[in-house]
Amino acid sequence: MPSGPCSFGWPERDLCCLSDEQRARLALLRSRYEAGLLRLIAPQAKLQGEALVATAHVVATLLNQLPGMLKALPEEQGVGLMESMLVGGIERTLR
Q1: Predicted model pTM
Q2: What is the residue range of 49's domain?
């Protein structure tokens, strides 16, 4: 399972315990991560502006949440399902 996106899970879960400065830093890091992720997986994306930002946020959120949602499945099956869902959604959305 991907390890990068999961690193946002614990700070987001405990957001109420962070200071305003820590929350602002986390938001900045997440937006940079999302922008870089989308450039990496869909460099030819035709979406622009807020639609592209929203797409990046959804993809990052899915990468963060899917491992937990699919943990009941055998690892190989869970990874395959996660890949299929993400690749299919990305291909259709970013055409």
Answers
A1: 0.69
A2: 5-93
